[in-house]
Design brief:
This protein has about 200 residues and is an alpha/beta fold. The chain is built from 8 helices and 8 strands. It has a 5-stranded parallel sheet with strand order 1-2-3-4-5. Strands 6-7-8 form a 3-stranded parallel sheet, covered by helices on one side. Helix 3 packs parallel to helix 4. The longest helix is centred in the last third of the chain and has 18 residues. It is globular, with a radius of gyration of 17 Å.
Length: about 200
């Protein structure tokens, strides 16, 4: 009976509390793959799913969010680029759906005003960064979490810190990513680390 009063869930973390998911797992917004079906399946399984809106028009984003409302009762995230066509409309769609959109992810582009608009609606800003200077900038702009992406991500952030190449550059990439994670952790903000 004493154990019933002191339950400990090792999977309950700051990340799960902030995102409102059961498991500390984020399903990334892979372009053309992270559709409503995948996002809903991830969210329904206990993870936090991100919709790949960076490859969608504003109308497609609106339709995808409406579809997600039917597929899952859970909150989910939306990934976009502030330089993509229709970005301002996508931001408005996300803000209008803040009851279900719990986070946004992005690379470069958003300014402090846009980040404040998300935060005022209770939407966490979780940018993807590949260099210490990008992490520092996102923290200064008001982001509450960051995703650290190195070479394992395969996207544009993967070469931001150390350039391209394999072999002798692998150790440099590892050092750069470790430095970025250390700098982010020292900022006293939640950190999403890549899996090795």
């Amino acid at each position: 009976r004493i154990f019933e009063e002191f339950t400990f869930d090792p999977l309950a973390t700051d990340l799960t509390r902030r995102l409102g998911c059961r498991l500390p797992v984020i399903q990334t917004a892979m372009g053309w793959i992270a559709t409503p079906a995948l996002v809903a399946a991830s969210s329904n399984a206990g993870a936090f799913g991100f919709l790949a809106a960076a490859v969608m028009s504003p109308a497609e984003v609106g339709d995808a969010i409406a579809r997600l409302r039917d597929l899952t009762p859970h909150r989910f995230g939306v990934n976009f680029h502030s330089f993509q066509p229709g970005a301002a409309e996508i931001v408005e769609i996300v803000l209008a759906n803040s009851d279900r959109v719990g986070a946004v992810s992005f690379g470069r582009g958003p300014d402090a005003r846009m980040i404040a608009a998300f935060r005022n609606k209770g939407i966490l800003c979780v940018p993807t960064v590949g260099a210490v200077k990008h992490a520092e900038k996102m923290v200064q702009l008001g982001c509450e979490m960051i995703t650290v992406q190195g070479g394992e991500g395969g996207g544009p952030e993967s070469r931001a810190a150390v350039g391209r190449g394999r072999g002798r550059h692998a150790f440099r990439r590892h050092q750069a990513r470790q430095g970025l994670m250390t700098a982010a952790a020292e900022s006293k903000r939640p950190l999403i680390q890549p899996f090795e």
